[in-house]
């Protein structure tokens, strides 16, 4: 009996434990922190052996295969010890994908991947049996065990890709690549780029790679490296023969001489970046033979993603916008780009080696005040201190929102778009976004 050890008892860890057990593995789950009650109950109910607040080497190093949570870096001692012994350390995506014959659409990128994944799933589910998993929703492994959908849309982070060996999606999407998480890639951008492109490493010409042809980083990589997959680029500026492009207000998608035209006028999500997300989702849908009418209607009635440029409330003619999901500079760039009124900007958190230069023009043009919400705000103060009249620091969301309320005048917007990770003051970006919304509702 093969021994499967799982490091990290979150959504992906517990899902993998259940699938592993069902497939005849001897399973052991180990978490360095405390395991949440809801996950503990599942492990106990299914008689899976587990431990918390420690990693017992004797029970881990004898594994045949190890699935580690994407949040655990490779530099951690227990992972190093496993790799030194030659034990395979893989991600949930790699483990679960070997137990399904489903058609897999895998979406990665620095920004836009959640919106693109949710939008793609929203279109496909109108006509296909399809699950949504990966970095989002219920664990992929658990869905393979309980539903085994005929199709999956997977939102996949670079950390999950790093743990993939044989994973081979039928359709891969790369939304864009900008510097992010460089702390996990020895501060080398090229390592992070290679990680994103590993999504296509096992693809053949029967498979497809959909990507943003306006992204210099992506174009450069494709030029220098051999990619086996059939390429389907999308662009807002160029005319594309095979793939998608924008012609005035229409998205034109061509695949094997089969063309469809989608008007963008009524797309539910605003902003240029969302036209790109719509292009990616429509290209996938066209590949999977979804009717044009269905694609169009789905793009028009899609509700959007929580914590991504989410309009919360208007109070005294001031619009409060929750963009807590903006955990890097490029995401905040899109947020500030889409602001059409003077903005009070709440920013800050765990800086992942950010370069704020690309935001300067927007800050000069649109931002009237900055509220720094982080444990360490030095870099923000140094970057933006001279650009705005008002810049203040706080470590409490409720206080940040109260200060914003005092500064903002009728016609202004208050934007939470942190450009940083959230782990210094919050559990995660969802917790940060919910606290923001609660604070706004309590004004």
UniProtKB/TrEMBL annotation:
Catalytic activity: UDP-N-acetyl-alpha-D-muramoyl-L-alanine + D-glutamate + ATP = UDP-N-acetyl-alpha-D-muramoyl-L-alanyl-D-glutamate + ADP + phosphate + H(+)
A molecular-function term among this protein's GO annotations: ATP binding
Superkingdom assignment: Bacteria
One of the record's GO cellular component terms: cytoplasm
InterPro entries: Mur-like_cat_sf (IPR036565), Mur_ligase_C (IPR004101), Mur_ligase_C_dom_sf (IPR036615), Mur_ligase_cen (IPR013221), MurD (IPR005762)
Gene3D superfamilies referenced in this protein's UniProt entry, alphabetically: Mur ligase, C-terminal domain, Mur-like, catalytic domain, NAD(P)-binding Rossmann-like Domain
Reported function: Cell wall formation. Catalyzes the addition of glutamate to the nucleotide precursor UDP-N-acetylmuramoyl-L-alanine (UMA).
Protein name: UDP-N-acetylmuramoylalanine--D-glutamate ligase
Gene that encodes it: murD
């Amino acid at each position: 009996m093969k021994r499967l050890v799982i490091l990290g008892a979150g959504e992906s860890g517990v899902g993998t434990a259940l699938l592993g057990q069902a497939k005849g593995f001897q399973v052991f789950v180990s978490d360095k922190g405390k395991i949440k009650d809801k996950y503990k109950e599942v492990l106990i109910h299914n008689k899976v052996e587990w431990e918390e607040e420690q990693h017992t080497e004797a029970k881990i190093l004898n594994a045949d295969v190890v699935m580690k949570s994407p949040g655990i870096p490779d530099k951690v001692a227990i992972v190093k010890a496993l790799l030194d012994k030659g034990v395979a350390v893989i991600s949930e995506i790699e483990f679960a994908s070997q137990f399904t014959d489903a058609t897999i659409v895998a979406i990665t990128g620095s920004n836009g991947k959640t919106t693109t994944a949710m939008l793609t799933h929203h279109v496909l589910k109108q006509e296909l049996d399809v699950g949504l998993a990966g970095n989002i929703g219920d664990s992929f492994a658990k869905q393979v065990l309980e539903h085994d959908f005929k199709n999956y849309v997977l939102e996949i982070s670079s950390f999950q890709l790093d743990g993939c060996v044989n994973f081979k999606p039928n359709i891969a999407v790369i939304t864009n690549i900008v510097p992010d998480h460089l702390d996990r890639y020895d501060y080398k951008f090229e390592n992070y780029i290679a990680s994103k492109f590993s999504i296509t490493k096992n693809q053949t010409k029967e498979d497809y790679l959909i990507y943003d042809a306006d992204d210099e980083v992506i174009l450069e990589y494709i030029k220098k490296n051999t990619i086996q997959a059939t390429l389907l680029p999308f662009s807002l500026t160029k005319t594309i023969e095979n793939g998608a492009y924008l012609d005035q207000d229409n998205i034109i998608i061509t695949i094997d001489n089969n063309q469809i035209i989608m008007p963008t006028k009524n797309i539910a999500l605003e902003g240029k970046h969302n036209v790109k997300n719509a292009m990616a989702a429509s290209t996938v849908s066209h590949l999977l033979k979804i009717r044009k009418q269905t694609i169009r209607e789905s793009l028009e009635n899609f509700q959007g993603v929580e914590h991504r440029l989410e309009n919360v409330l208007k109070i005294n003619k001031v619009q409060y916008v929750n963009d807590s999901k903006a955990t890097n500079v490029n995401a905040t760039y899109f947020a500030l780009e889409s602001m059409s009124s003077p903005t009070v900007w709440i920013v800050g958190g765990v800086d992942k080696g950010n370069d704020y230069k690309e935001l300067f023009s927007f800050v000069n043009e649109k931002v009237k005040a900055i509220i720094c919400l982080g444990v360490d705000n030095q870099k923000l103060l140094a970057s933006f201190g001279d650009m705005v009249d008002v810049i203040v620091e706080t470590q409490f969301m409720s206080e940040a929102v109260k200060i914003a309320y005092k500064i903002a005048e009728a016609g202004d917007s208050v934007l939470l778009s942190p450009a940083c990770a959230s782990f210094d003051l919050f559990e995660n970006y969802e917790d940060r976004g919910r606290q923001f919304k609660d604070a706004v509702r309590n004004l």
